[in-house]
Amino acid sequence: MNKTLMERERSMLKGARLGQELWIEAVETTCYLVNRSLSSMLEDKTPQEVWTGKKPSLSHLRVFECYAYVHVLKEKQTKLDINLKSTSLLGIRMV
84: buried, middle or exposed (CB in 10 Å: 19+, 13-18, 0-12)? Predict the structure, then answer.
């Protein structure tokens, strides 16, 4: 399984044109996706489905390293500040 994760990690980083310094985020995302992907060894169920008994939702997934905007709370902005901040979404977390 380690070889599979590392091969997918390298593919994700190369596809997103990112450096090796983000390898941890890529491996975390790969592991997250593997646990929510069908497996023939589990009779076409996902590992997540076998553990919890429920089919996992994939509607929240986005492209690895896509642009995102975060709302800045009113307490953290002044009168003239913009209420959005541009950021990148790496896998399943904002950075």
Answer: exposed
Contact between residue 25 and residue 91 where contact means Cβ atoms under 8 Å apart = yes
Which of 73, 70, 64, 63 lies closest to 85 in space, CA to CA?
70
- The CA distance from 12 to 23, in Å, is 9
Least Cα distance to 65 among 34, 1, 19, 31 occurs for: 19
Chain centroid to Cα 17, Å, comes to 16
Overall pTM surpassing 0.85 (yes/no): no
User: What is the maximum alpha-carbon separation in the chain?
Assistant: 57
Does the pLDDT value for residue 90 go beyond 60? Answer: yes
- Rounded distance, CA 40 to CA 46, Å? 9
Distances (CA, A) of 22 to 28, 42, 91: 10, 31, 11
